[in-house]
Amino acid sequence: MSEHTPGIPGYTYGTDEAARSPLSLEDLERLKAVAGLTPEDEEALREAAGILAGQAGDMVTAWRARLGELSFMRPYSGHPDGTPNPEYGAASKPRFDRFIIDACTRPLDRDWLNYQHEIGLRHTRAKKNRTDHADSLDHIPMRYLLAFTAVVITTAREYLAATGATAERVDRMHAAFTKSVMLHVTVWTRACTGAAGW
């Protein structure tokens, strides 16, 4: 699951097409330490991958539906006037689905850093809309990216519990997933701020 790179348009993980992250591997190790991500968490994430992989599409659909309920968020994924853009949604969804699997399986290395920076840039004027040739608003404010992380994290728990894992196992996987998502989003924000502020 972690080694296979699916033929998803715009999914440039591990390729020269992904942006080069300005962060060093030392920066990454420090972030892992601050987030408290441990080898035990990485083991729990691998277990979570087996549960979440088959539900990733449903998770993303639910998250997008929640965003769609907020009129002020619609222009970021639809047309600038807020009307839906099904083509853009269909093109970008497989990458969003894959994010859930990657968050549980990818090794935290240079390829990981580079692709997370690429994702960050795709939320900013530097690369927003370019991958899918969309016409939505050209920048997602960092405040919304950070705030929506709460939804991603809290709703993941019900999906982790869906196969009947014990409460203790669910707690362990959910804690690890929380750390992983926070690490991802933290690295994405580097594309939104200058080096001094970040």
Number of DSSP E strands? 0
Kindly provide the radius of gyration, computed on alpha-carbon positions and rounded to a whole number of angstroms.
16 Å
Average pLDDT, all residues:
96
Oligomerization status of the protein chains: single chain
Distance between the termini: 33 Å
Helix and strand string, N-terminal first? Answer: HHHHHHHH
Instruction: Indicate the percent of residues in helices.
Output: 55-70%
Task: Describe the global form.
Answer: globular
Major sheet, described briefly? Answer: none
- Percentage of residues in strands: under 5%
Structural class: mainly alpha
Give descriptors for this structure.
Globin-sensor_dom; 198 residues; mainly alpha; oxygen binding; globular; Globin/Proto; 58% helix; 8 helices; heme binding
